[in-house]
Amino acid sequence: MAEKRDYYEVLGINKGASDAEIKSAYRKxxxxxHPDLNPGDAEAERxxxxxxxxxxxxxxxxxxxxxxxxxxxxVDPNFGAGGAGWGGYSGGFGGAGVDLNDIFESFFGGGFGxxxxxxxxxxxxxxxxxIHIGLTISFMEAVHGCTKTVTYTRSENCxxxxxxxxxxxxxxxxxxxxxxxxxxxxQQRTPFGVMQNRRVCPHCQGKGKIISDPCNKCKGSxxxxxxxKKEVNIPAGIDxxxxxxxxxxxxxxxxxxAWGDTIVIVSxxxxxxxxxxxxxxxxxxxxxxxxxxxxxxxxxxxxxxKVQYNIPxxxxxxxxxxxxxxxxxxxxxxxRGDQYVTVNVEIPKKITRxxxxxxxxxxxxxxxxxxxQRKGFFKTLKDLFDNDKDKK
Length: 392
What we know:
Elements (H helix, E strand, L loop, with lengths): L6 H5 L7 H15 L8 H17 L2 H10 L29 H9 L22 E7 L1 H6 L1 E12 L15 E2 L8 E8 L2 E8 L8 E2 L12 E12 L8 E4 L15 E7 L6 E3 L2 E8 L1 H6 L1 E7 L2 E7 L8 E4 L15 E7 L7 H12 L7 H20 L1
Parallel strand pairs: 1-9, 11-15
Antiparallel strand pairs: 2-7, 3-6, 4-5, 8-9, 10-11, 12-13, 14-15
Helix pairs in contact: 2-3
């Protein structure tokens, strides 16, 4: 089995990264390797699973702390049943397996930080892990909301053994070496004297139970991988990279623990015409020279379809108009944003001889007073020249 890569390396971030940096890195990597965007690419699928596993650990404060302290061993499902002690140290002081927390506990009744170092009961209920999946929708689906079906794989209790891991008709037996605790006590001679050391039971690997006749379906693990389909209700107004939680639809818990959640991270495809900023919508509409000069009723695309809008005569290129309440519905709230329409006067690149003559004749009738910007520009220019002459 290949050795797991460092989770921070998988997401391309430093160990001291903030929660926001971790989330941003995950979303970027999840988009890059998502199976929907890489159909048939086995390597991309493996990378996507690796990225999702890394985010599951680093986005959980408790798991992240254990991982930062103990590495991959700290987030192993059997971690609570025992394992290496302080920083994963397991050597020195007269032999292998010495746990510095246990040394301090034998002296003071607690480990570093004054807290108890008692191991969790390996047979206690444990919540199932969360699953993170990506879902791509269109711009309009995000605006108006929709229902999508997602397919993913999760861990479920084995139907053959009911999650016990033992073959049907048999049962797991309490480990006779650790008596179900998942760890054993050993005496160790150290410079401080004879110490009691607690370590993972090598006979049951910290599970507290021995399965002599494992289930054929799950091979003794108690869980199997199952592909499921779930409907996701996408609320109107959701934005790119926002997420939805399917509560209790993640991995099955252990020993009767609660199910984890499935977190759906939504990616929104851009629209070819409309753009979004928050709950406001922006669009640029090309208009003709004549429409700008004379004013006109133009067609404006909105999230609700086409609408008619009257622009006044003398409209300048780049002018922005506001359509109140024509934006996107507030997510899980009342009201809507606005739509902003910018008009861009398009100058024709080719004209006929007749059109040129007509345009020249029209231009000959115009004076500087017909142009606000032109009039102001040449007045300012004249003042500058007059001031230069006076200085000379």
